[in-house]
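Exercise 7b. Backbone tokens:
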């Protein structure tokens, strides 16, 4: 499996002939390393919540590629009604979508689009070929992260560290301690001044716990 950081909270996961995206915010993302039209084939697009820096270009990309959008039920229904795209609505719990294990977990955060609340925020644990990636979405730290990681051991945890809207470094290091992933990767930082964070500091503190941390520049890939 190959993970590519697209900038901010956006990731691409490739496994054999399948391409999955998470929170593909590319246009208007000062850290984006790709454009929506660079993606010709996408199978599933996971959306953690409806904020513009996460929903991003998902609708356009679903239209171009025919990908299905996976989101919490209320956001999925709204997307298919408003934009006429294929969606898979689920809720906090575990399911299987196109052969992938998908565990939708809570994220302590709001969810709105153009000023109106839509659905709830979530994180995703995605199981691919015996490995699991946890994308925490936008959230503060919470102790149930430990519970989910006990039930579904995590290989790679993608954790926001930018603060203000999400966990800061202090909380994200605690999250890594609770989750005990094989690898922790920081996200949602240095996109704008409000979410500035020193990723090296995160890496240092996480590695003091005996957990490997990898800093990905936008465009960088990680193979596991
Ligand atoms: Ni948000
Ligand atoms: Mn955000």
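Sequence design result:
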């Amino acid at each position: 499996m190959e993970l590519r950081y697209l900038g901010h909270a956006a990731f691409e996961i490739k496994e054999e002939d399948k391409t999955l995206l998470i929170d593909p915010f590319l246009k208007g993302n000062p850290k984006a390393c790709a454009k929506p039209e660079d993606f010709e084939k996408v199978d599933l697009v996971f959306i953690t919540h409806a904020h513009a820096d996460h929903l991003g270009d998902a609708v356009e990309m679903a239209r171009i590629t025919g990908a299905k959008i996976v989101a919490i039920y209320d956001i999925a229904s709204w997307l298919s009604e408003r934009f006429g795209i294929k969606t898979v609505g689920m809720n906090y719990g575990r399911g299987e979508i196109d052969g992938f294990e998908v565990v939708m977990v809570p994220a302590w955060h709001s969810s709105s689009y153009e000023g109106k609340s839509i659905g709830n925020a979530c994180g995703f644990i995605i199981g691919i070929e015996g490995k699991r990636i946890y994308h925490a979405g936008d959230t503060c730290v919470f102790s149930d992260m430990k519970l989910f990681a006990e039930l579904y051991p995590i290989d790679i945890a993608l954790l926001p560290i930018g603060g203000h809207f999400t966990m800061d470094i202090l909380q994200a290091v605690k999250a890594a301690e609770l989750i005990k992933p094989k690898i922790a990767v920081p996200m949602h930082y240095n996109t704008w001044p409000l979410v500035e964070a020193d990723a090296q500091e995160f890496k240092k503190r996480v590695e003091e716990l005996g957990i490997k941390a990898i800093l990905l520049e936008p465009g960088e890939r990680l193979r596991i």
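Instructor comment: Helices lie at 52-55, 58-65, 73-83, 144-151, 169-179, 199-208. The two ends are 6 Å apart (CA to CA).
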